[in-house]
Amino acid sequence: MRILVTGAAGFIGSHITLEFFKRGYEVIAIDNFSRSNFYNFKFVREQGIEIIKGDIRDAVFLEKLPRVDWIIHAAALINVEESVEKPSLYYDINVRGTIILFKKFYEKGTRNFLYISSAAVYGEPKYLPVDEKHPVDPISPYGASKASAEFFIKSFYHSLSDFNYVIVRPFNVYGPGQSGEYAGVIARFIERILQGKSPIIFGDGLQTRDFIHVDDVARAIITIVEKNRLNEVFNIATGVPRRIRDLAYEIIKLANAQLEPTYLPPKPGDIVHSYAIPAKIMNLGWKPVIDFSEGLQDVLKWARSEIST
Fold first, then answer.
1. Are 255 and 299 in contact (CB under 8 A)?
2. What is the span of the domain harbouring residue 136?
3. Based on the number of CB atoms within 10 Å of its own CB, is 99 exposed (0-12), middle (13-18) or buried (19 or more)?
4. Residue 121 located in a structural domain
5. From 142, 165, 174, 275, active-site residue
6. Over 70: is that where the pLDDT of 181 sits?
7. Which end of the chain is more exposed for a tag (fewer CB within 10 A), N or C?
8. Do the domain assignments include residue 205?
9. Is residue 60 part of a domain?
């Protein structure tokens, strides 16, 4: 089976690419390298996988690619704060890019499209834990762009008799290779702590998140493809809420640092509590297997190796 992975040099995309490759799939990997981390690029290339440089908005580039059995669409801009400043850019890449990608490969005969969305489409939860039936009500342009792409994908399914989709909504993904300006809270905490700086908490630290390791996310996506579960939406999460303050202290302890968090006012629009019920994906036989503390240690080990190189 031939798989196309977009955003293959990105944090989530690189792990998905490698997981499919390890399972014996033929993987076509593409990325425009605008936000990719060198570690993730190297991580994929060291396994002998070529990442083709190209943009999902470039119809001429897409036309040159071969037909595939599945598209795993991970390419996206993902920074909430940046999306407020540059909403048109987020529309252009996350929405328009998705439409162009769909159109070109549908013309080639590709009928299965797995879209990696985000828990950001839910906005501030109306109830907890969040299931897949929770209203889609994003509170940021980033979340709106992911929700818009979802609606377009579903509209293609309803308009075309031979098109299948899967939408996955990962919650707070972490793991080796997540760093830089667009990283999640775990990577930002670790970066500061290893520099001897206090981790910064916006608000009182009592807000909760559902952290899921990137390798568990990659396995969930492969499970969906191999079970051939079509035209459905899946949360990918652990179902375990963790307080941001507790997270900061756990990383400080694992890093053997002598630090205290710095507390700043909450960011406007920040969600207070967010965690999922992953029963639907678990009914397929998947479950998260990476212990949270061990996962944090893996990220710390990777971050230290990056500092030393």
1. no
2. 2-175+211-237
3. middle
4. yes
5. 142
6. no
7. C
8. no
9. yes
